[in-house]
Design brief:
Length: about 100
Amino acid sequence: MAKTSLTAKEKIKPLADYLMIEPLEQETTLPSGIILPDTAKEKPQKGRIIATGKGKKNEKGEIVSLEVKVGDVVMYKKWGGTEVKLDGKEYLLVREEDVLAIVEA
């Protein structure tokens, strides 16, 4: 997985079927009351979409719109995407095909 660091002046606008996801932190306390240190936590696989591209082109050259939208909470593949650091915060750029599900409340 590639990592990229950007400055505050730079903005990210995903292209095609790419999504920018803000990973959501997982619980740090187990049901038994044990608190997990940062080193024992797994990478999050759930996050909120904060930006999307316009969609992928099909074989006719038409843009196929995305199934997800900004604000959706999604589950994504564990090792997919590119990590991006912007203003000290980490984000993930993934293709829509790496999204496994939309999480509904």
